Amino acid sequence: MPDIKHFDPDAALDTVVRLFWRQGVAMTGIQDVVTATGLNRSSLYATFGGKQELYLAALRRYQEQWSRPAFRGLADDRRGLPAVAEFFDALIEVRCSGEYARWGCMVSNAQAGAENGDAEVRAFLHRHHEELRDALCAALVRAEAQGQLAAGTEPGVTADLLALLAYGVNLRSRTGADAGSLRATVGAALRSLTSRTAE
């Protein structure tokens, strides 16, 4: 007979996401995972594999639940620069208030942590960056078509710049930067891209 799981793997993974997100990989041991999920080690290993496999599963879960919905919303928005401004407003809101305030972004935390030494993690981070950059670029292409961008502003290069700004927001919020200062920085960056006729 097949082994019957007496727990919900999705619910367990959601708990693991929050644990790795808040504490990082280096500060999270398997015993922390056991305590947080209420599962025994054999159940964890049988379902997810070792700590590294569990971390990669948590990264993918974070991407599906948090990153991709935001990226899709940005890429599908037809407004151009207002959509980019709204994307950053929502980012700052979730990073600076509510249940996940000061946790930063699980992906940005991985960019800055020792876990990026793993080849699979690096590949994941690269793909995630490309998705962020592509969503920003799509919004900027629409902004350009609507005459919102300053002359000489190239959507692809600017998308890379704004992706770096998003990482900065994530990391600075984790160390206590207040929402007002982050919004002021983002506002200055977006104003530098804006055509005077669009202001």
TrEMBL record:
Superkingdom per UniProt: Bacteria
Coiled-coil residue spans: none
DNA-binding region: 29-48
Listed InterPro entries: Homeodomain-like_sf, HTH_TetR, Tet_transcr_reg_TetR-rel_C_sf, TetR_C
Alphabetical keyword list: DNA-binding, Transcription, Transcription regulation
All copies of domain HTH tetR-type, residue ranges: 6-66
Signal peptide bounds: none
PROSITE patterns membership: HTH_TETR_2
Protein name: TetR/AcrR family transcriptional regulator
Organism encoding this protein: Streptomyces glomeratus
